[in-house]
Amino acid sequence: xxxxxxxxxxxxxxxxxxxxxxxxxxxxxxxxxxxxxxxxxxxxxxxxxxxxxxxxxxxxxxxxxxxxxxxxxxxxxxxxxxxxxxxxxxxxxxxxxxxxxxxxxxxxxxxxxxxxxxxxxxxxxxxxxxxxxxxxxxxxxxxxxxxxxxxxxxxxxxxxxxxxxxxxxxxxxxxxxxxxxxxxxxxxxxxxxxxxxxxxxxxxxxxxxxxxxxxxxxxxxxxxxxxxxxxxxxxxxxxxxxxxxxxxxxxxxxxxxxxxx
Length: 261
Known about the structure:
The protein is α/β, with parallel strands linked by helices. Helices cover 25% and strands 16% of the residues.
């Protein structure tokens, strides 16, 4: 990727999303997330496979693939301090629209740079039952062009996929996107949380425990919405491949191995 912080630093912060439009047209986006399957891959082999490709790393997944990351997707939730050997790498922040001023202030106290600013609309404007995974309205991702995002929930649905699509990628490959294991919940009560949610992450990349995970109902919708998600990608002529041996998404999604990356 020739796109980096140096290419956008002189553009007004609020115009940068517009500038990103089709900057990776027809490329493959490799989105790396924090599921436990990520660190099951031999890191040296994975980095070699990703070298020279367009890589988006979400949150702590950056720690595993920092050498090849082009864009780091962050939020204030489960934030930890990151060291950037490549100061030119783009840092893409999503902020809760309702709390955007407070969250930006927190980022400043961390001496972090905001290269891309994306407001995510949740309560009070978007309720849980109106979120993307509940409604299966994946056209929400196209709102990225208007510098906004709709509650996913989760950075994958709110930032990473919309970003790749906005930049013109016609193929997306996920690495470490495991979604979660609903069978690990102790109850099927819709409001129940998984007490061991931290264990459903690549824990050795985390400097602290993760916060509360999704409710049972949220994770159920996150899994079940992948059937409509598959249909949406097919309609939009987007190839979507999954590198994970535990991802519970619709079985029609193409699963690949590290060797096939």
